[in-house]
Amino acid sequence: MASMTDKGVFLSRSLAYIFAISMLFLILSSSLLFQSSDNSLLPKSIYNIIIVNKIHETDDQIEPESPPFLLSSCNKSSLPSTGSCDQDKALVKVFMYDLPPSFHFGLLGWKNNQNPNQIWPNVSNLSDIPKYPGGLNLQHSIEYWLTLDLLSSVSPHVSRPCTSIRVQNASQSDVIFVPFFSSLSYNRGSKILGTENKNMDKVLQESLVKYLKSREEWKRLGGKDHLIMAHHPNSMLLARKHFGSSMLLLADFGRYLPQIANVDKDVIAPYKHVVRRIDANDSPSFEERRLLVYFQGAIYRKDGGIIRRKLYHLLKDEKDVHFTFGRASSGGIRKASRGMTSSKFCLTIAGDTPSSNRLFDAIASHCVPIIISDDIELPFEDVLDYSKFAIFVHASDAIKKGYLMKLLRRVQRQKWIQMWERLKKVASHFEYQYPSQMGDAVDMIWHAVHRKICSVHDNGVRRRNRYRMSQMFLSS
Ligand SMILES: *[C@@H]1O[C@H](CO)[C@@H](O)[C@H](O)[C@H]1NC(C)=O
Ligand SMILES: *[C@@H]1O[C@H](CO)[C@@H](O)[C@H](O)[C@H]1NC(C)=O
Ligand SMILES: *[C@@H]1O[C@H](CO)[C@@H](O)[C@H](O)[C@H]1NC(C)=O
Ligand SMILES: *[C@@H]1O[C@H](CO)[C@@H](O)[C@H](O)[C@H]1NC(C)=O
Predict the structure, then answer these.
(1) What confidence tier does 4 reach under pLDDT thresholds 50, 70, 90?
(2) N or C: which terminal CB in the chain sees fewer CB atoms within 10 Å?
(3) C-alpha 175 to ligand 4 mean position (Å)
(4) Nearest bound ligand to CA 171?
(5) Which of 39, 70, 75 most suits a substitution to test ligand 1, by most atoms within 8 Å of the C-beta?
């Protein structure tokens, strides 16, 4: 966990954030007052306008639909702040079940040595927080960062954005959080050991379903207000059929029936990148990135694997292209990191699921992603315009002879630099860390949960615009 932040630095940084955000708000609200004959903008969740503007210039602002104002939090117009957090300030009030440690930190080897009744590590004491294992498991560690963030929301020792707060009374909450580390449980416990006739992951899922169904909080709305994390595509394999009414936190919808998971109710969370995130100040320039295109990934026999193989045959002999197969070992991760930071473009190709951590590795390396995955779901696409920093190519086009190389060779230096500058800005939105910071992945997820609760739907504009860019390059 290299991303554990020094508290002093964090505090001064958050003060700077608060200052910047309040200035932005001041300028924004005055400009709105002056320019608008359309007053309907003002009562609308100002927060939404702010978060959109925090990320984009005004030209790519998308107006959210009017929320139905079901919850008082949907009317919140105060800005999320850091420092002391309370229920009135927070955007989302979250009730978290006190599940036994075997469902969460126990899976990381945490033991409540001092007090057997203690359910959670003391998040004010960094050395009491178990470390998450490195390597590829880390991709799906979303459950770990969100749970730590909720725990720290009521700790006076930790400074974080006041976007969500843990509340003790479920009837006063906006959402009920199920702190089961389902991806870790899948990664760690899905093999049958010795004399056990069921694997541990299966046992945990079964007891979770039983637990939830017995709870008043679940019965009240049939789980509709529950937030359940299942980021690994194979996690919750048995239990998921019970969670069709809940809000799921997923990597994509690839292995789900649409009646269980869909974009109307669920939230897509980024993978945690496994390559090192490069600093914006020493990101290699256009000239320093000597490779044109980089791809390193597993080869699959199923579905998307066909595309990977076809592309391999099309690209393998091209100049300035690195295209190899192989799963990354830890040495492989270092090599991939070097490869991506010395390439202008990085391919994200559908594998056995539409999403992969390749996209987030590319973003962390400031390597312009070329997304070849027609069914990919992108995190925060309602507030982030991916077409400003990534190029989408239809799979059917990408496998045409010469298409991809022609497209990439036509992207001019100036255009590439624009996308690279944007990447350097948005990279922080994909960063998981503890304590959480304003606008990082954890914070963005809470905001996305809030938009979902208030039914501020993604109106699909971004999705329709995805392929604009590649058409433009080819028609020029
Ligand atoms: C939210 O605001 C709208 C209009 O400003 C108001 O009509 C509605 O009653 C408010 N809802 C809640 C739950 O506060
Ligand atoms: C948690 O850790 C902090 C900092 O080390 C300490 O001040 C506090 O007393 C601890 N809380 C409990 C409940 O042990
Ligand atoms: C912090 O946690 C560690 C490990 O659980 C413990 O040994 C240490 O005493 C704690 N420190 C404080 C100040 O509570
Ligand atoms: C929880 O909140 C409800 C509604 O505000 C209240 O009636 C109830 O007494 C509260 N329960 C506890 C244990 O505080």
Answers:
(1) very low
(2) C
(3) 16
(4) 4
(5) 75
> From the CB of residue 414, how many other CB atoms can be counted at a distance below 10 Å?
8
Q: How confident is the model at residue 30 (pLDDT cuts 50, 70, 90)?
A: very low
325 lines ligand 1 (CB under 6 A): no
User: How many folded domains does the chain comprise?
Assistant: 2
Task: State the Cα–Cα distance between residues 451 and 174, nearest whole angstrom.
Answer: 12
**Closest approach atom of ligand 1 to CA 75:** 1
Determine the 3-state secondary structure of 84 from DSSP: coil
295 and 227 in a common domain = no
The verdict on whether omega for the bond into residue 258 sits within 30 degrees of 0, i.e. cis, is no
Inform me whether the pLDDT recorded for 88 exceeds 90: no
148 and 247 inside one domain:
yes
Contact 347, 398 (CB under 8 A): no
Q: Within this chain, do residues 140 and 287 fall inside the same structural domain, yes or no?
A: no
Alpha carbon nearest to ligand 3 atom 5, residue: 128
Give the distance (Å) from ligand 3 centre to CA of residue 5: 18
Residue 375 CB less than 6 A away from ligand 3: no
Q: Are residues 258 and 386 in the same domain?
A: no
pLDDT at 119: 96
- Full-prediction pTM beyond 0.90? no
311-342 tens-digit pLDDT? 999 998 999 999 988 765 667 888 889 999 99
Single out the residue in 243, 268, 293 at which a domain terminates.
268
CA distances in angstroms from 113 to 28, 234, 295, listed in the order given: 51, 32, 46
Residue 474 included in any domain: no
CATH code at position 340: 3.40.50.2000
Collect all residues with Cβ–Cβ distance below 8 Å to 348 and sequence separation of at least 6.
Answer: 356, 358, 359, 362, 369, 370, 371, 372, 373, 376
- Residues 220, 102, single domain; the answer is yes
How far is ligand 4, taken at its centre, from the CA of residue 95, in Å? 13
Whether residue 262 is found in the same domain as residue 402? no
Q: What are phi and psi of 297, to 5 degrees?
A: -170, 175
Q: Is residue 133 part of a domain?
A: yes
| One domain for residues 208 and 327 | no
Q: Does residue 258 sit within a domain? A: yes
CA of 126 to the centre of ligand 3 (A): 8
